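Action item from last week, closing it out:
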Amino acid sequence: MEKILSLKNISKKYQAKNGEIIAIENISFDVEKGEFVSIIGPSGCGKSTLLSIISGLEEKNTGNIFIDNEEVIGLSPKIGYMLQKDSLLEWRTIYDNVIFGLEVKKIKNRENEEYVINLLKKYGLYEFKDKYPTQLSGGMRQRVALIRTLAIKPRILLLDEAFSALDYQTRIMVTNDIFQILKNEQITVLMVTHDISEGIF
């Protein structure tokens, strides 16, 4: 298998009034292309901090991160990040939401827009492209958020408790839907969760 992500001795400390707080220390692991890796742990153990460091949104104190055997410092266009909340922009249509990342990265062109339209059609959201987020169910909103993330064609997708805001029944259905989408699109995934059953599923 081809190694796509490598972490070497990643540590992060925060300064507090009563001294240093160690969030994570000497974390090392590899993720191979096409793998779906779950990191499971209780709230406050540093899971989200680790994803923020991998994504480049937060600085590490020590260690190195490699994607495709090249060291990454800061933000990487090869990484997509899906948070706990869908963070859809309520004043934009579904289509305008899913192309938002293309606009931010200044890569909105005909080819990428066609790719987005194909994703919407493929995963049952095309007929809702002119609707607004408030008109969609929680599960559909998560699918929109995923397609928005996939629109930038990431090599690696980070999921940070991405389904925790949904009720249990919806979470099961959405998790299955999203797993199938990621499998179809051959995306490498690193997910953090406090839910053991979700991680295993």
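Closing note: Residues 3-200 form a domain with the Rossmann fold fold (CATH 3.40.50.300).
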